[in-house]
Design brief:
Layout: E1 2-3, E2 10-14, H1 19-30, E3 33-39, H2 45-56, E4 60-64, E5 69-75, E6 87-88, H3 93-103, E7 109-113, H4 124-132, E8 136-139, E9 148-151, E10 159-161, H5 167-177, E11 184-187, H6 195-202, E12 207-210, E13 213-216, E14 227-228, H7 233-245, E15 250-257, H8 264-271, E16 275-284, E17 287-295, E18 303-304, H9 316-325, E19 329-332, H10 345-355, E20 359-363, E21 366-370, E22 379-381, H11 386-396, E23 403-406, H12 418-426
Parallel strand pairs: 2-15, 3-14, 6-7, 10-11, 18-19, 22-23
Antiparallel strand pairs: 1-23, 3-5, 4-5, 7-9, 8-9, 11-13, 12-13, 15-17, 16-17, 19-21, 20-21
Helix pairs in contact: 1-2, 1-6, 2-3, 3-5, 4-5, 7-9, 7-11, 9-11
Length: 427
């Protein structure tokens, strides 16, 4: 993709449905009794991987792609069938980790595999806790990564203290806990996104959250529940950032999920001096939603670390871009998790931003960015990471010269209409 400088961004957009919530609606709908209808479903490649995996497990799923409505005819908690082939999770870490918690408790074997990126992402973080519950999961290459061979087993409840604040790890354990013989408890070092807890409760599971600990009771059955998916704040983040940094700009992003376990980007923007307001705040299925209005602002550097990191882990690449255009120094720390995403996002952001002329250095757990340097267009390697591609589309739109994003179509993983929406606002 070739990106050139834009003069302004003005107008109103609606970003695609939340990726995390879309995934979970498929999984919980599949193992519930009755029919679940999910509206505003994200038609990105990752969420389509979840649909295909559950179809292979015997679940009938209709996908009305024109209207983003997915209908899941649930088989109940114990109704999944043995797959007749390897379950292909594509590029989706969420699919791979969460479905493992469900498959660990079935009365059949299954094999999970995905693309080259998934085959490098760490799966020991779910293999080990699920193993403590009695699961039998093998990394077939013996390297702690996919492909995974899952032998269905009888599971036991446990109290687990997670070394990482990861919604994927927590969710895999909670989903396994539905099938366990006693209650299961997960405690995190910091609170990760809580979409699983909210949706499990809506489908009839007995889930209690207290501080950084969540407890789930074994379930006899879950019951279908219609889901409306709010706009994904991780997708909105690129337009929030672009609207704040582009001259003569004002953008309204409609119906965005502002769950407090995900709203770190809003808090950081305000910390940096952003002109950002929330309007039309309401709730849908337990998830808070609002319209986000951003206007051109003068941004200042800041320090980002500690408990806020899980609430903005996917937005750190675009925050790094914002920091380059802010005055002063921005320090991002406690973000080691960036190293094991679709790419090593610390190294990739630093090398690409340096190519554009930024004053930035990598640290063990983040980066230090000295803002105020004039950036220029450059050749950017996306490493087929959608968050990297979208972040550099924002950076490129603020620079003189052309920015060429190699593999830029990887945005289809989470936001197929991203470039089109960007062009619409730049008219």
């Amino acid at each position: 993709m070739i990106i050139t400088k834009v003069n302004h961004l003005r107008g109103e957009i609606t970003v695609p449905g939340d990726k995390s919530i879309s995934h979970r609606s498929i999984m919980l709908g599949a193992i519930s009794k009755g029919t679940t209808v999910t509206r505003n479903f994200l038609q990105g490649a990752d969420c389509l991987s979840s649909i295909e995996c559950f179809r292979r497990l015997g679940v009938s799923i209709e996908n009305d792609t024109a209207n983003n409505i997915v209908t899941i005819y649930g088989l109940g908690l114990h109704g999944l069938k043995a797959p007749d082939a390897v379950l292909d999770t594509g590029n989706s870490g969420t699919t791979t980790r969460l479905i493992s918690g469900i498959l660990a408790a079935q009365n059949f074997e299954s094999i999970l595999n995905g693309d080259a990126s998934i085959q490098k992402r760490p799966m020991k973080r779910i293999i080990e806790p699920l193993g403590q519950m009695g699961a039998h999961i093998e990394s077939m290459n013996k390297n702690g990564c996919a492909p995974l061979h899952i032998y269905g087993s009888r599971l036991h409840g446990m109290n687990y203290t997670s070394p990482v604040a990861s919604a994927q790890v927590k969710s895999a354990i909670l989903l396994a806990g539905l099938y366990a013989d006693s209650k299961t408890q997960v405690t995190e070092p910091a609170l990760s996104r809580n979409h699983s807890e909210l949706m499990l409760g809506a489908f009839g599971a007995h889930v209690v959250s207290a501080g950084k600990t969540v407890t789930i009771e074994p379930a006899k059955e879950l019951y279908a529940c219609d889901v409306y998916v709010p706009g994904d704040i991780s997708s909105a983040a690129y337009f929030i950032a672009a609207g704040l940094m582009t001259p003569d700009s004002e953008i309204c992003i409609k119906n965005v999920g502002i769950n407090p376990t995900r709203d770190g980007i809003i808090r950081v923007c305000r910390q940096m001096g952003a002109d950002l307001t929330l309007e039309n705040i309401h709730e849908t299925a337990g998830e808070p939603v609002a319209d986000i209005i951003v206007k051109t602002s003068t941004l200042n550097g800041t320090v980002i670390g500690g408990d806020i990191i899980p609430a903005l882990i996917d937005e750190i690449p675009v925050i790094a871009v914002m920091a380059c255009f802010a005055s002063g120094t921005t320090i991002i720390k406690d973000a080691q998790e960036l190293k094991v995403k679709e790419s090593n996002r610390i190294d990739v952001m630093v090398s690409n931003l340096k190519a554009m002329g930024a004053d930035i250095e990598a640290t063990d757990d983040g980066m230090i960015i000295h803002g105020g340097r004039t950036l220029h267009g450059a050749d950017i390697e996306s490493h087929l990471d959608h968050r990297i591609a979208m972040s550099f589309a924002v950076a490129g739109s603020l620079c003189e010269g052309e920015t060429n994003i190699r593999g830029g179509q990887c945005v289809n993983i989470s936001y197929p209409s991203f470039y089109e929406d960007f062009r619409q606002l730049a008219r």
